[in-house]
Description:
- The chain is an alpha/beta fold.
- The chain has a single domain (3-215, 228-308), classed as 2-enoyl-CoA Hydratase, Chain A, domain 1 (Alpha-Beta Complex).
- Helix content is 52%, strand content 15%.
- It has a 6-stranded mixed β-sheet with strand order 1-2-3-5-7-10, sandwiched between helices. Strands 4-6-8-9 form a 4-stranded mixed β-sheet.
- β2, α2 (45-60) and β3 (67-72) form a beta-alpha-beta unit.
- α5 crosses α6.
- Mean pLDDT is 89; it is low at 1-6 and 282-292.
Amino acid sequence: MNDALRRTMPAELDRAYRYIRLEWNPEFAMLTARMGVRPIQCYSLGALAELQQVFNDISATPGLVRHFVTASDVPGVFNFGGDLSLFVLLVRARDLDSLRLYARRCLELVWWWENAANLGVHTTALVQGDTLGGGLESALLHHTVIMERGAQAGFPEVLFNLFPGMGGWNLTIRKGGFAVANDMILSGKIYSAEQLQRRGLVDQVADDGAGELLLDQFIRGMETRFRGTMTALQARRLAAPIPYESLQTIVEHWAVTAMGLSNRDMRLMERLARAQIRKIGGASDGAVEEIKRMELNSAWDFERTGISEWDTLS
């Protein structure tokens, strides 16, 4: 975080992060979390832990944050979703417990996003690059999705015999309807911003490079009706609820299904992970695997002691 942003950042939110860069706009009480995960822009265990800390800080200070924006610090990529390299590592090791641990971490974040309106926080996804699988799931969790015209998104999991397990079915059905969810998830196709807008999954499309401007215009327009919007969003969730138990059951089904992936499926996942590395540049495959082992050890340390390396960086 640069000095100017650190001076304006509320003390309750001011932490040092490795994978997230926070920005604070005091005019709108808007916190923007720009994720930058290397070598692959995905929801790694390290990124999940940091994002959970951000959410914990927002929840601990009611009324401080009115707008929460998720964005990317990686040009051309919003988020590639699930950590494919880690998944392959765990499936080959037959480590179902660690795969469940990853799923639990994801579910905790999903549930915070799902309940953000009850905390008085409006959420916006600013999608300025490609997003796949869990990245698209996370975007759909936001109250508003703004996507730049050149970005693309989809659920490719079926191509390697998996499915979006962190709310993809629930969220796509709620926003676009069953037919849209069925077509997108079972086809594995990639869609443009305009195609997703026509399907009801994207709220506004900006020209490439104009996403920030559209976000600013949207937030300014919403400020005059903020309280009414938030109460309406709370009522919307009551009208179309996603039960926590449903998410838990689907996540368990996802973890068990992953354990049955074939060598072919895992080779495809590794191929996709390598393509993701090439998209943004990064370390070699061997380094990626080592990073995943280190993150996994840190996550299990937190499960046992409640203390992680991110606590020491605060």
